[in-house]
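Anyone able to model this chain together with magnesium ion?
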Amino acid sequence: MGKQYETVIGLEVHVELATETKIFCGCSTAFGGQPNTHTCPVCTGMPGALPVLNRQVLEYAVAVGLALNCSITRYCKFDRKNYFYPDNPQNYQISQLYLPICRGGSVEIETGEGRKSIGIHEIHMEEDAGKLIHDQWEDCSLVDYNRSGVPLLEIVSEPDMGSAEEVIAYLEKLRTILRYLGVSDCKLQEGSMRADVNLSVREAGTEGLGTRTEMKNLNSFRAISRAIRGERERQISLLEEGKEVVQETRRWDDIREESYAMRSKEDARDYRYFPDPDLVPVAISEDWLEEIRRRQPEFRTEKMARYKKEYPIPDYDIEIITASKHMADLFEETTALCGQPKKVSNWLMGETLRLLKERGMEPEDICVSPEHLAGLIRLIDEKAVNSTAAKEIFEAMFDRDVDPEQYAEEKGLKMVSDEGALRRAAEEVVAANPKSVEDYRKGREKAIGFLVGQTMKAMKGRADPGAVNRVLKELLSKK
Ligand code: ADP
Ligand code: MG
Ligand code: ZN
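re: yes, here you go
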């Protein structure tokens, strides 16, 4: 009988903050600039250049700490983490070791096994590094410092997770909270959220922690799940063979589905940390803390409870809509304009989710404006467009936020309300399809479906199916 093992996982999550400027200088954090155009003496590490803390970064860090039930360090400092690497022009990274901004929080997660609280060990502020480009020239590497100095929060959990399912629930919860706060867009694929997985195994039922490894380069939930499974198995085989797990940093290769050692794990002392003498310590006043607390948004749990009271829509819809603050805002603002929550929700639950999936996008990327969605709902209510046309209009709104009225007009999608035209088309269809007419008159009610279809076709789809039905029945009842 083999031994049973349990997995122990703690996460270090780096989140890129959505500030306009970098953490210690006024350079832009915008993506996609020409290499080394968003740089200055501070973020390229020129001797004598002095960093100044971006107030917005501190405010975001405090807001995140409050949302994750942490205690806020009222007197916090920055430290230098010394290491040499060409993407790090100062030869040290400004980070926080001794007095991080937040400590001791928790996040509630829910999995198939029930609720669980995951401890937050600490959150600290630090700067991102530049980017090395190795494949452009054969004989040299290039460096782009545009990302150097972009603000990061590192959120360090306690080793409280026991499975890939818990890890993903934790990351999703974290992402929802951070997006509700508007502090980061948290995209794993684009690197604005990065998770390093620390994992060890131990014999089931024992208390102590086994030796862990840290895995990097995990940029999707799928990669995270596979890496956890792979690393757990690798460590168990080592132990079963009587070998030891080496504490090291490993890189996950999601194509080969294997991890390989990158470097032996450094200790804090290897970095020769010391307080950064260029930055003054930060004192956070009670007033300012109170002000940030007051400005905290309504989070998902509270929003769900309020929706249940305010809107007559299914709980399932509420769950999907509130998973994204952006979608929830769109829902509320559109409902305020048109007063029809269920119809708004139907557009979100149906076409919106379908298109998001088809385009590989996230709810945060929806560009439809509340005015236009309310406008489309009105066009349908007024029977100015039928449901097929409405879907076509919605797709254009989804891609380019077009004005539905104008778009319907331009594309000729408005229904023909001219009863005369409809009657003429229906008469022609009746005359051209004696077989179906006979069937219907013999009592095969379904035969009318074909005639409706033909009439809609003759009207180029721009007729109200209800009206077509009515006119046809009228014609067919006459002998
Ligand atoms: P370092 O700063 O050297 O990376 P920390 O002690 O700060 O190390 O831990 C980093 C992360 O590793 C934390 O998320 C922590 O929960 C996790 N961790 C620490 N020890 C273990 C272990 N034995 N097994 C799994 N995870 C661990
Ligand atoms: Mg670490
Ligand atoms: Zn700069």
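The two ends are 85 Å apart (CA to CA).
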